Structures are given as C-alpha cells and as structure tokens.
Amino acid sequence: MHYNSQSAVRGEGRRVLGFCLESVSAAVVTCYQAHPGAGAAAMWRRSCGHLGARLCWLRGGLQFPAKRHWGVVSCIDPSMGLNEEQKEFQKVAFDFAAQEMAPNMAEWDQKELFPVDVMRKAAQLGFGGIYVQTDVGGSGLSRLDTAVIFEALATGCTSTTAYISIHNMCAWIIDTFGNEEQRHKFCPPLCTMEKFASYCLTEPGSGSDAASLLTSAKRQGDHYVLNGSKAFISGAGESDVYVVMCRTGEPGPKGISCIVVEKGTPGLSFGKKEKKVGWNSQPTRAVIFEDCAVPVANRIGDEGQGFLIAMKGLNGGRINVASCSLGAAYASVVLTRDHLNVRKQFGEPLANKQYLQFKLADMATRLVASRLMIRSAAVALQEEREDAVALCSMAKLFATDECFAICNQALQMHGGYGYLKDYAIQQYVRDSRVHQILEGSNEVMRMLISRSLLQQ
C-alpha cells in the first residue's frame, strides 16, 4: 500500500501498529494489528509505550523498564494542544519512527548508512514533501503540522530526520519560487523521494557570512557555467538535485541567484566523505563545480533573487531542525524517566532521590518550553507575520540549546551506561549537537533577534 498525499497521512493515523519482543536479546518482531475505534490519544500512548523499549539497547537486545508511569509522560505529551487531525498524523510519524527508524538508528550511525529505502517508505506516508503543494505530489500541510511530524520522526533517528527536513526545504523552495514547468519537473520525484535533494549555500570561505559567497555562475547563451565549491553539504554525492546559491552579479546579497544542478551534470563532482561526530546516517561532502554548464531553465526565480530565496528557506529550516532537536530531547526525557525508575543505588530506585527528581523536572520544563516556542514560530511563519523571522530565530536558538542540554543531562543521569554505544542516549547527544551550528549558527540567531529589536 502506498501513501503519497495528505489524505493518506490522515487515513493511516486511524491504524495502530502493534509491536512485540521475543526476548530482551532477540530481534524486534513487528506485528501489524488493527485496533478499530481506538482514539488518537490512546494510539499515541500505545506508540510511546514502545519508545523506551525500542531506543534503549543493552548488548544488542532491548531493555524494558519495570513499569510505566503515564502521569509523568502526560505533562510532556507532544499531542497536547493539537487538533484530532494533527494527532492522527503525529501518530503515524511516531509509529513509523518506532517501527522503521529506532531499531536501525544505531546501525546507520555505526556503519554510516544512508537509509534510502526507509526514507522512501517515509515518503509513501507523505513525508517527502510535507509542506509542498498537493498538485505536484506534496502533502500540503502547514508549518505547524511539519514541526509536529519532525519531532515525532526524530525520536526514531534524529540524523535521518534532519536530512529529510533539508530535503523538504529544497522541495519547498522549488515549489514556491519555481515556475510551473520547474515545479512539475522536480517536485513529484522529490516528494516520493525517488530523487533526493541537497541545499548548497555554505562555502569554505563563507559560513555565517553567506552573502559573501564566491561560487560563480556566468551566463553563456542558454546556460550558466558554474565554478566554485560548497562545503558541509548534507546528502552530497547521494542526492540527485542540488539547490545551489551562486553569484550571477555584483558582490553582496543582490548578486546571488538560485540554480538547480542535477547529478550527472559534467563538471559536478564531490569531495571526500567527511568523518563527523554525529549525523552519520547522512553523508556530508564538498560539492565542486568546474566549468559546470547548467541550463538557464534551471534557475529558480529571477537573477538576484537567490539570497532572498535562501533566507526564506532557512526560516522554515530553523523550525525544522529545532523540531529534530525536540524529538531527540523528548526521547531522552522518556528514557531517563524509565532509567530512574529501574536503576537502584543505595537500596532504592534513583527515582526516589530528590536531586534527580529536580533534574528531571528541569528537563521536562525546558522540553515543553522549547516545544511551545517552536510551534509559536511555526504559526507565525505560516501566517507570514512580520515577527516570523525573529520568532524562527528565537525558536531555533532556544530549542537547539535547551534540547542539547536535555540530551546531555540525560546522558549524565544514565551514569556510565549513558556513555556506552549500546544505549541510545549518546547518539541523541551526538546527533543534536550540530543543530546549534547549522541553518545559521546560534550566534547568528542572536544577531538576527537583536537586529529585529534595534530596528523597531
């Protein structure tokens, strides 16, 4: 069965996926069981009931907490404040994360595997073009809906979800700023993830100062000839479509244009695969252009519009990556709660220690505050409000800082176990750390926020 539309996402939300374990050392066996009439809240609880079990590895098996305390989880319930429709596709995303991503995230990380098949399964649920318009194969959902979905998916694998979020941003750029021919050429295969996309802005000499980029695109007849290189590009070498910001005119932001370069174009090549602390399920390479001739028909928008396109893409990208951090933090809080209930020291569970209770309370508070900021910014961006840029920057700054702190604190509260790769906590720490750097570093977020205040 294939799912490639908003209606499919909604419909699948009415199904429930049941899971069982043969033993703590056996592989996970996935069972599909229908639960007619089950409410969205009940379905969500059933999904979260498996979250801790699926994400806490112990010597290749799975570690189950002795019992669950839904009262604790309810105060950080990610479905709070959502309508029934949003709860349903949130349920779909949680189920997909638990079934397809969480059992594999350690292997993807250790072997540096780019999980093409699993991402295409996600696209069948409508997650390849979440906020792309439906006439070109997208799901047509809102920015808030998108944040909800990425939070849920990131509980299963933060690194893979972050790549999916970048892919979505590229598809949205083409859908929003491309002409009809470009939209219908590029968006359908991106929405199904038959083809994958990468966003190419950062260069070796221009990171935070993106407007100073040097990659050139000189027009020669009906082609642009590109020369230069891009750095730290997620998906590079594996992606089929590269949304490239390059210089077609004067220095500064007004001389930048957006051009789509397709894999296989003569003159397009890639650097070595980077060795990273985290984000290992997505390859990162330099993208190199050497007399790379691209049709003028591949220019998105007008000449000189590229910097505006890049920044508008990043506003949504900042909410998306913050949502990925949120998913990692949510999973970390649940795992820590379970660990405190199970782990005994000095003759009693760690959960009885008031110091650790207070730590857990702080983590939960930071988590919920981050979620509220992200969702507020998502609504502002959807409504195209004047404060949207500042709110997106605030949400990215606050959530990526706080959610990394939550993951790091969770590792500390797991003690020595948290530092073992048999446990998921350390991977959430490694995968969420880079979110404070990319899509505009958090130092740049502070610049944007202060600029917004001082210009009033």
What does this structure look like?
This protein has 456 residues and is of the alpha+beta class. It has 3 domains: 6-191, Orthogonal Bundle (Butyryl-Coa Dehydrogenase, subunit A, domain 1); 197-304, Butyryl-CoA Dehydrogenase, subunit A, domain 2 (Beta Barrel); 315-454, Butyryl-CoA Dehydrogenase, subunit A, domain 3. The chain has 15 helices and 14 strands. The protein has helices at residues 6-12, 40-49, 51-55, 70-74, 84-101, 105-111, 116-124, 143-154, 158-177, 180-191, 306-342, 354-382, 388-413, 425-433, 442-454, and strands at residues 17-21, 28-32, 57-58, 61-62, 197-200, 216-220, 223-234, 241-247, 256-262, 268-270, 284-295, 299-300, 344-345, 348-349. The strands form 5 sheets. It has a 4-stranded mixed β-sheet. A hairpin with a 2-residue loop joins strand 6 and strand 7 (223-234). The longest helix is centred in the C-terminal third of the chain and has 37 residues, at 306-342. Residues 1-72 have low confidence and may be disordered. InterPro entries: Acyl-CoA_DH_CS, Acyl-CoA_Oxase/DH_mid-dom, Acyl-CoA_Oxase/DH_mid-dom_sf, AcylCo_DH-like_C, AcylCo_DH/oxidase_C, AcylCoA_DH/ox_N, AcylCoA_DH/ox_N_sf, AcylCoA_DH/oxidase_NM_dom_sf. It comes from Equus asinus. Its cofactor is FAD.
